[in-house]
Design goal:
89% of the residues lie in helices and 0% in strands. It is mostly helical. The longest helix has 49 residues.
């Protein structure tokens, strides 16, 4: 099978070519969206952990027994 025949097969099945391209675009978009939102959530989680550990560290230093 040569290149011209492969192109002709794709043109004959244009509907499935469009469906495949649409699925790839959708999958890529969802993957990037989830990755960006996940990164944002992880950064937020680490920020909250850092803030809560610094607050608990300050209270234990100043809140010793007398």
């Amino acid at each position: 099978m040569n290149y011209a025949m492969n192109v002709q097969v794709l043109l004959d099945h244009w509907f499935w070519l469009l469906v495949t391209i649409a699925a790839l675009v959708w999958y890529s978009t969802v993957t990037v969206y989830v990755a960006v939102r996940g990164l944002r959530d992880i950064r937020s989680m680490f920020r909250r952990l850092r803030e809560s550990s610094s607050q608990s560290g300050e209270s234990s230093v100043g809140g010793g027994q007398r």
